[in-house]
Amino acid sequence: MLANVLALEHITVHVGERRLLDQVDWILGTGERIALVGRNGAGKTTLLRILLDQQAPDDGRVVRAHHVRLGYLPQEELPLAGETPLDGALQAFEAALDAAREQEELSTQIAACDAEDPELPRLIARLDDLQHAFDTGGGHTAHADAERVLDGLGFTAEQMRAPLATLSGGWRMRVHLARLLLSRPTHLLLDEPTNHLDLPSLAWLEETLKAFSGTLVVISHDRAFLDRSVTKVVELADGKLTPYAGNYSAYEAEKARRKAALLAAKENQDKKIEQLERFIERFRAKNTKATQARSKEKQLDRIERIEIESEAESIRFHFPPAPRCGQLVCALIGASKRFGAAPPLFAGLDLEIERGEKVAIVGPNGAGKSTLLRMFAGTEPLDAGVRRLDARAVPAFFAQHTAEALDLAATVFEEVERAAPKGTPDLRLRMLLGAFLFGGDDIHKRIGVLSGGEKARVAIARTLLQPVNFLLLDEPTNHLDIKGKEMLAEALAGYDGALLLVTHDRHVIDAVATRVLEVNPGGRVRSYLGGFTAYAEMRQREGRPLAGYAPAGAAAPPQRLARATPAAPAAATPSAESAESRRSGGSFRDRRREEKARATEEKRLLERIEQVEREQAELLRAFADPALYRDAAQLGSKQARHAALTAELAQLWERLGAG
């Protein structure tokens, strides 16, 4: 057996009557970098638990070589050893540090021995063994390595030595991740590692994983992270594993290609089956053709029918139209904010949000992103300066604590229904809840039994139903899967009000933002036009590249969502920021007019596409009528019309994609 073999053989797991895993075989090759993907409930976490021997399968076995060392980061928080984050990270060197402590005790004991003591040779031999354990266990560099990894994950020197009890759940998960990376496992299994990381820490983790020489298996809903961190995707669906070469974007493209090829093959097969069935039906009773008909029947029986798996309906959500308001929706003028005796987070800050802008706030954790969002929302009082809100502005603010205001006795559906405009169809509410991972009977669960993440999803779903023109969202994607994030991004891109968004999801920023505000420690705020890619490229040109980020390798923004605009020079000071914003008002209005023109044209094309597809569907229903084939002239006319519609449809989609 190879030194680092880890494999699953014929793994089967039942959940009630359902077969969650069906005779799964999986060999995790040395050095592979794998994304494990699949719908929620497909069994991804179960598969990891079986690999870890935390759950026994109903059938099959796990093959693990003697030298395999597994490292696992779960989604849920685990107990931490030690009094500080540094202590927690140093648990990765527990054997070496234990050896050091025993060395110290043994050295004291040896110093007290006489030279003739018969125990002395044994004690010296033990001391030598402990020194070897300390050397090979990384003891010499343990503290330096632990500080380096914690620094990469965003900890300051003070935070590394602060009591663990003062840390939030997200920061405690970073300590777990630090300990895991320092333990140097042969196989690293990560379940949603990016949930609590800011952009600099994300970039650092991606670079660290690139240097990791072992086997990586990651479950993540951050597609930008997957695009940068994996070279293979394994999809779990209907109890089976299907491998795809490349990163997540390559997986999506290849899956679509395979689906198209399968549909084409099924279409050809269906035509062949139809021809055979017609022949059999027509000639079965004729003596001269009966033998041929029986031969065709046998041929028909031998055909292995192609089955197309049913896919969940693509869920789309559209915001209610934003009420009309003035061009300047909200402004902070000379705004200052500090907490206690700490240095001020912001001082003399001037910022403006205009109608129709979609602004993403980015920056390291602790710099003040959420505080700035609350200042714009009016829930964080200013120490100095003015918040000016347009008289017709209708704001809605989603923050993590919003979930705490939910009615614990209400069901999920009842809580969302209360926030919906009067007359909203139940089907629309069910579709929205489905996008936020509440399917089937889940909508009838009481709020009181939900997890913190589930409550947050209910809270943001309620926020999105309200007709508002100033939407403020703090980390709305934290508890969504990739499809849910894409639904939200598409809805936000089509939202016609002003948007202020704090998120670490680079794909969402690229899909939605027309401007990026970078918040830096010390209250420095810089403004960049465009999405995340434009922001990263501008920082590169400024000579301040994002740590570990190579803009040229960034995944392309999604088509028809992102409207990236060349980034403007960064403002050097808050006051300059405001002046620059006022000077650029004309260009912003021009850009809005262009966007509206594109949106109008896109709407016109989509309406014509729907008309063409409806007419095609009517023709297909007509083609299913046998009477049509007795009228050659009418048949020819309908065939010619269908061909013309097909050609027009191809042109419409081409024009839509070009726009």
How would you portray this structure in words?
This protein has helices at 44-51, 85-90, 94-111, 120-136, 142-152, 157-160, 169-182, 199-211, 223-229, 248-283, 290-302, 369-377, 412-419, 426-435, 452-464, 482-494, 506-512, 532-542, 574-583, 585-623, 632-658; strands spanning 6-15, 18-27, 33-37, 59-64, 70-73, 187-191, 215-219, 232-237, 240-245, 328-337, 346-354, 358-362, 384-389, 395-398, 470-474, 498-502, 515-520, 524-529. It is α/β, with parallel strands linked by helices and 659 residues long. Among the domains are: 312-337 and 354-394 and 467-583, Rossmann fold (3-Layer(aba) Sandwich), CATH 3.40.50.300; 407-466; 595-659. The strands form four sheets. A six-stranded mixed beta sheet has the order 5-6-7-3-8-9, with helices on both faces. A six-stranded mixed beta sheet has the order 14-15-16-12-17-18, with helices on both faces. The chain has a three-stranded antiparallel beta sheet with strand order 2-1-4. Helix 10 (248-283) runs antiparallel to helix 11 and helix 13 packs parallel to helix 15 (452-464). The chain is flat, with a radius of gyration of 31 Å. The protein starts with 5 loop residues before the first strand and ends with a helix.
What characterizes the major β-sheet?
6 strands, mixed
CATH C-level name of the domain at 312-337 and 354-394 and 467-583? Alpha Beta
- Tally the helices: 21
What is the average of the pLDDT values? 82
Structural class by SSE content = alpha/beta
* CATH H-level superfamily title of the domain at 312-337 and 354-394 and 467-583: P-loop containing nucleotide triphosphate hydrolases
Poorly predicted runs of 5 or more residues: 552-586
Distance between the termini: 56 Å
The helix fraction, in percent, is 40-55%
Radius of gyration: 31 Å
Beta content: 15-25%
What is the level-2 CATH architecture name of the domain at 312-337 and 354-394 and 467-583? 3-Layer(aba) Sandwich
What is the 3D shape?
Answer: flat
Q: What is the total tally of β strands?
A: 18
CATH names the topology of the domain at 312-337 and 354-394 and 467-583 as Rossmann fold
Strand order, biggest sheet? 5-6-7-3-8-9
